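dumping this here before i forget
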Amino acid sequence: MPYIQRRQSLVLAFVLLFLLGTGMISHAATQPKVIVFDVNETLLDLETMRSSIGQALNGRDDLTALWFSTMLHHSLVTTVSGDYQDFGKIGVAALLMVAQSNNIALTEDQALTAIKGPLLSLPAHPDVKAGLAALKAKGYTLVSLTNSSNNGVTTQFAHAGLTDYFEQRLSIEDIKVYKPDLRAYAWALAKLGVKPEEALMVAAHGWDIAGAKAAGMQTAFVARPGKTLYPLAPAPDYVVKDLSELVQKLN
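structure:
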């Protein structure tokens, strides 16, 4: 090999090693045995809740994202403080907090009405059913792992027509430790009987991807509109726009 070509090859090798070391690109992932899916926003479209949340907040449907992030934030408060609360109760409390911070009068009953029915009847994103069917056809075992309650995800999947795609539905309610606490992923892996590197976590939340990656799992970020990765976390193994693209990448 001529000197210039050898030099170019060495430079390319050093660049690739640097990118791998910084997490700007991921190490090649092995074929997963199990694919674990987050539920809300990853599989189910939360946008349909805008009208109910907006109505409760005097037409401020732009506050839906703030409500959801406030709910997630305080689920972690209950985890680190050891004071577990049901995810639905945290959702109601979060909506009351958003209302108060925006000087909107809202009762607990009104908050519950705005959340419970709509959250349990979310539709699946348009790409989800075809994507799940294709992954099952490839022989993958599909499992869900959610912060929602067992009864909640059962109702959600039945309404959205997703029940038959999954071998198991796992809820952190069983251990009372919310994602992205590493114990939640370790518990799920133990239940599934697989090593971390044998499982692929699929989520539309940067915090979920960061947690699963720290737990040693393979990760796939679904870039739903408005969703971004956490820049300080290691890069996921896959970044896809929807499940159809994930199917293509998992040959």
